[in-house]
UniProtKB/TrEMBL annotation:
This is Short-chain dehydrogenase. The keyword Transmembrane helix does not apply. Pfam families: adh_short (PF00106). InterPro entries: NAD(P)-bd_dom_sf (IPR036291), SDR_fam (IPR002347). It comes from Aspergillus udagawae.
Amino acid sequence: MGALISSQTPPLTERNLGDQTGKVFAVTGATSGNGLRLVRILYQHNGKVYLAARNASKAQQVIEDMKRDFPESRGQLHFLHLELSDLSTIKGSVEEFLSKESQLHVLWNNAGVMVPPQGSKTQQGYELQLGTNNLGPFPLIRLLYPALAKTAAVSPANTVRVVWVSSSAVSLAPKPAVDFSNMDYHVMKEPGQNTQGAKQSLDPGVAATELQRTMPWWMSMLVKLVGQKPEIGAYIQLCAGLQFDLDCHKPDTWIVPPGKRAPGRKDLFDAALGHKYWEWNEEQIRPYL
Ligand SMILES: NC(=O)c1ccc[n+]([C@@H]2O[C@H](COP(=O)([O-])OP(=O)(O)OC[C@H]3O[C@@H](n4cnc5c(N)ncnc54)[C@H](OP(=O)(O)O)[C@@H]3O)[C@@H](O)[C@H]2O)c1
């Protein structure tokens, strides 16, 4: 719970972020909550941002609002259609991006659902939370990799990044954290235990956003009671993506509120389990590359 609420000052905010002119960013799930706040800050500081989202009209409204709020910005905002719960569409989204851009400085894997009703599935039949939050980003990263690598080759070391937004709920994960005999979730997990994943890089804290739309009422109420402003989650993402001196290779750690490196639960960083989980994902996405 200590990581959930923090009154410390975030290291990077809209007040001290430097000029982002010339940088290209992509934020998944940019139409609400933390992702929307993150895009606002990037655009305010002249970043070129792709709002990778599934709802075009919602994204266009967000873009219009931001352009109105920051008329001085020299940045750019672009909608990029992305439906993470349908693996067959992701290649097309990446092709669309690559037809416009050859560089990508930071990709934030922010989009997600939490505690969807039991039985919710992706187009390919995966459990919805696993499919959206974990599996969907795999082809995205894989197909964007050449642009990321090309950008990294001409950028300062460790500044081109892929950020994974996870959750403090991983602390409730079973041991071992991934149950390979139950990847289709035929045995239902308790809330918090369905955050399958071997690589988590940040905990955005807790905030009342649209994420609670599928949660049981009591969980939603609890989040409203203890949650912070979604801006705090955006600041943590800002730190993970853009803090210049962040040591991205420090083992067994992630970024927690308000934007500091901290050790995670040791077994969640188990290299063998992580490798096996990575391979499982690679296997699932192979037909869609
Ligand atoms: N808020 C919290 O307390 C909290 C706690 C722990 C972790 N997190 C994590 O933080 C991240 C951001 O959450 P949030 O609180 O900002 O929630 P949010 O307001 O619900 O935003 C989630 C975004 O993900 C998008 N999304 C959902 N399914 C998608 C799909 N299949 N394809 C593409 N986009 C999809 C949503 O798009 P639509 O608008 O079209 O639905 C929305 O823009 C998530 O990964 C979440 O798991 C949040």
